[in-house]
Structures are given as structure tokens and as C-alpha cells.
Amino acid sequence: MGIIRSSHTLSGVWSGRYWVSETDTEGVQFSAWLSLENGSLTGSILEPSLFGLCEHTENESTIRGHVTDDEVVFLKTYKGVDHEPGYYEGELSECRQRILGRWYFGWPDEMSGRFEMTLKSANNAAATPPSESASSLK
Q: For residues 127 and 136, what is the distance between their CA atoms, to the nearest angstrom?
């Protein structure tokens, strides 16, 4: 299991969903803009606000992590919201277009759930970040 050097299969726009509990049947949809270079993963995520803040209908976060042959690991940090970062670890599908895994807040015990992500549009220089394209998601 080595660090991924090729970025062409993971950089781009991803669509995802996470579930806040094991009994959650609908989950929360999100969009992710990822860039992979020399095994280092960076990007942004845009999702509906679940923090009950009236002034925010969406939350943007940044991600930083790494990718190996079959695993993706990243820390998700919310922008403008006082919330601890989330830890995500997932398994990369053989075709490299899907990630299935778990997220954690208060690692490893406090709160966790599952997530999935599917590559929608691949490119070498990940798509426009959410702060510049948020209006296109509405």
C-alpha cells in the first residue's frame, strides 16, 4: 500500500452523502472539490447547514489528507463555524470513482457515521472551489 502519485483519477468534483446516525435513512448530501498531488489530498466541501444557525443555509469546509492505493483519509474543518474538525477515513473503489467509509467527531468515540462519495467530473486541476461556485448549486 503506497502513496498515490497520479492525480488524474481523484481530482475533480465529487457528490456525496453522509448519515448522522445508524438509523438515519436519508442522509445529508454534499458536493466536494478535490485535488490530489503527490499523495496529498486538499479541497473544499459544501453542504446544508445542520448547526441551526439562521444566517447560514450552507456550510463550507476545507479538507486536508492523504490517499494510498486503496484508502482515503482526511480532516474536514468548517469555515466560519465554531465546530471541531471531523476525521474521515474511507476505502477507495477499484475503479477509483467511489469512496465508502466512516466519519468521526471527537475521535474515536463521541459521534460517528458513514459516508460515501462518487466522482462526477474528473480533471487534473480540481474544479472551482465552493466559495466561487456556491450559487451554481442552488
A: 12
